[in-house]
Structure formats: C-alpha cells, structure tokens
C-alpha cells in the first residue's frame, strides 16, 4: 500500500554508522532507522547472538516459560527501577499496554469513564488507541471516531496539568520526556519532577513514553533518569532490539499489578529471538560505556551547532540531549533531506521545520565531525 513516500535510494549493506546503496555509494547514517539502530548496522556481536539463537529455538508462545524473556525483564527492571515487564513487538503496542493498565486501574477504582491526560504535539503510535492519544491532527484525520478517554493539554505546561488537580476521573498522564516526532521538544528543566509530584498528590499514574528516548539515546538508559524520578509505567521499543522488532511496557507498584492472567497478551511478544538480541543490546551498551559516550558526543555536537548555527537568522533554536538533537529553522526545511542524501548523509526533518539528528551511539569522532560539517553547510546554505 502506498503508506510511505520513500526516497529514491536502496541500501544493500551496512556497517556501524555507514550504509552503502546499490551503486556502491557510501552514506553516514545520522538517523539510525529513526532511533532504532543505536549500535549501528550489522553489529558482529548481535549477529552472533541472533544466529546462535536461530539455530536453537525461535518461538514457543507465552503458554510456556521463556528464560531469556525472564532475564530481559530482570535486566530492564534493574536498569529502570521498575517492578515488571510486558513484552510486545512495537512502540504502539507498548503504549497500548500502558493505556490498558491505566484503564484497568480506573476500573478497579470503579471509575466508569477513566481519563488519561496526553500532550499537544505528542506521538504515541498508529493504532486506534495510540493515534487517539497522539496530539497531532494529521495522524488522526480520516480515522474518526477516535478512541475516547484522552484529555489533551499543552506540553511543557505545568499549570495546565495543575489546573486538573482534584479530578478523580483522571487515572494517568502519558507523556514523552522529550517529544521526538513533535520536533525534539525538550521541556523546561524540572518538568518531569513536577509532573511526578502532581501525579503523587492526585494519585495519577505517571506513564512515560520512552519509545524514542529510551535505551541510551539521551545519554542515560531512560530520559527520566536525568531528573532522578521513577515513573509508574514506561514504554520502550525502537532501540531495544537494534532493529529486531521488540517492545516492552515496564510498570511499578499498583500499575505492575493491574494486568492479571488473561487480561492482555501477544503471540510474538517476548520471543526467544527478540529477547536474546535485546539482552545483548543492553550488555554491549554497558560494556562499551555508550551512555557516557552519547552524553559527551551529544554535548560536543550541540556546542558546534550552537557556535556555528545560532548566529544565523534562519535558525530559531538548537536543542536536544545526548544523541537526540534538533535544529529548528524559521521556515519549513524538508528539502534539506534529499540535499543531505545527495551529500551522503541521512538526516530527518520533523514537525516541518526541525532538522532531527539521531546518530548511532557508536558514532566515532571523525564521523561526528563529518556530520557536523555537512549539517552546518546545508543549513548555512538555506535562507530564511
Ligand atoms: C516511534 C514512536 C512510537 C511508535 O512506535 P512503533 O514501533 O512505530 O509503533 C511511539 N511513541 C514514540 C515516542 C515514538 O517515537
């Protein structure tokens, strides 16, 4: 189906942060398959683990115990401070699990029409419930009637949430620590901690969509760890399997007890292949100390961009954390993407006027310099 408008390029091979097309031209990948291939392409250790598991056992279903799934749940809980995990195959499904947890908590309180607070400019997926939770009319248009039960407020606006205090039909808030599709929008410092206290005061679940920010992207395992808070629910997918489809919904406290046997499920979720790959992803990030690397490289890139791009009048803002970077221009700039491609660089433009960079965490310094030079050149060449 013509659900995608694709660029006229076909990649046939990858290695680390490099991709090669059919003609043998080499590209630097500063997008990582949209925050997925955090360890780059064709990582030898991931290849090894995937092939080893493929020769042993792929799938038995969740009717039986799956040891690597149990180990992965343990690792994710250790790294996040959460209590348990439900595994699925995508970010939208991980958010569906979160939404079901909120509804189940509401039902347990006898609330007939429980509400989840969501944010303008958010993105939570393309299933009916997650597109209904998404704060972008373009994602929703044509698919009405939407799933009900979502209350939308402005992002990065504590007062808007505070004004809902005392409403007992609200059970949860669902929010991205940094809005990815919404334009790499970074909220004011302290935003998440203030959301946390409002949720505590009102007995609302704090549900963080870390599908894009999670697994090291911002320089911590989870973006919420920059503010030393713990959510009640957090969702993961994208980078968890480095390209092998796997998602997870992690929960804590009463949220972790909301779904009991028979209330939710997935045929493929948490299978041997996905869980072995994800365990290896976590091991490599830890062993190679890629969190501090992402933080350090990200700061270096941000400094370069601030120095060289901030003075330009066509540049409106430069922001980000770790290797999740956005350069907001005054005017729509989608045309930069094919220009970058022609110069052998993969970037993305989101929210019409934000150049989004999501390079792999294994990017080396020469590659970072090449990325910075090309992006600075491209943006300097635009006019406002
Ligand atoms: C990509 C994304 C999703 C959806 O993930 P899929 O795997 O495409 O379903 C949800 N939330 C956020 C924040 C995302 O970036």
Task: Walk me through the structure.
Helix 2 packs antiparallel against helix 9 (272-287) and helix 10 (290-309) runs parallel beside helix 12 (365-380). The protein has 2 domains: 11-30 and 289-380, Alpha-Beta Complex (Aspartate Aminotransferase, domain 1), CATH 3.90.1150; 46-287, Type I PLP-dependent aspartate aminotransferase-like (Major domain) (Aspartate Aminotransferase, domain 2, 3-Layer(aba) Sandwich). By secondary structure, the protein is α/β, with parallel strands linked by helices. The longest helix is centred in the last third of the chain and has 20 residues, at 290-309. The strands form 3 sheets. A 7-stranded mixed sheet has the order 4-10-9-8-7-5-6, sandwiched between helices. It has a 4-stranded mixed sheet with strand order 1-2-3-13. A 4-stranded antiparallel sheet has the order 11-12-15-14, with helices on one face. The two termini are 36 Å apart. It is built from 12 helices and 15 strands. The structure holds pyridoxal-5'-phosphate. Pyridoxal-5'-phosphate (PLP) binds at residues 90-92, 95, 123-125, 176, 180-181, 209, 211-212, 237-238.
CATH third-level topology of the largest domain: Aspartate Aminotransferase, domain 2
Gap between N and C termini? 36 Å
pLDDT < 50 stretches = none
In CATH, the homologous superfamily of the largest domain goes by the name Type I PLP-dependent aspartate aminotransferase-like (Major domain)
Radius of gyration: 21 Å
- In total, the number of domains comes to 2
Strand arrangement in the largest pleated sheet: 4-10-9-8-7-5-6
> What is the tally of helical segments?
12
Report the mean per-residue pLDDT as an integer.
97
- The level of helicity is 25-40%
What pattern of helices and strands is seen along the backbone? EEEHHHEHEHHEHEHEEEHHEEHEEEH
Secondary-structure content class? alpha/beta
- What percentage of the residues does DSSP assign to strands (E)? 15-25%
The second-level CATH architecture of the largest domain is 3-Layer(aba) Sandwich
Instruction: Supply the CATH class of the largest domain.
Output: Alpha Beta
